[in-house]
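Fold this sequence, please.
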Amino acid sequence: MKKQTKSKSSQASTRSEQSGKSTTTQRSRKRGLTKTLHPNRWFIWAIAVMVIVLGSLFAYITISSLNDSSEQSSGLLQSRQMPVYTSVTLGVSMQYPTGWVIDNSSSTAITFDNPQNNSESITVSKSTAASIAKLEKSSNVISKSNYINNGLQLTVLTIKAVGHNSSPIKVGIVQSAKSAFVVTGGSDQFTAILNSVHPLQ
């Protein structure tokens, strides 16, 4: 009986030791696995966030560029279907929508008005490099974009309008080596008219 009791006690002790070793081994493996999988988890998260932000920024720039190109292409297509007006006094030619009224009473500007919609009006004014530089540096400028059209440097400014509920104003600038013109006003034909402006010098 004593031998059997000792034997059972020994077996129980052995099982306890094995169980303890097994538990210790499992804990050690978990710790090792944790260290292996997440040694620099904050650094990895930072890189992941950076990749997402840069990807979103790239997508935004690409879409904006496509929209600008589409608007310019649309303007070129519309301008091919419009009549041409030439002012020798101002030294410029441009296209305007069919049926619009031309006001050339000013010696420094030409205005095109839509007789069927009083809110549509485009004015092309002769300017100087100094005046344009001052306009571009204005604190009211919200955005600025540049592109080349028919060998001319074109600039489109979006300017904050005066007034609490006023919408931003678009201003187009066309420059050649000897002259400069500013296009202002509101119309769906703005880009088409801007793209058609061509200094005679």
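Residues 2-64 form one domain. The first helix runs from residue 2 to 37.
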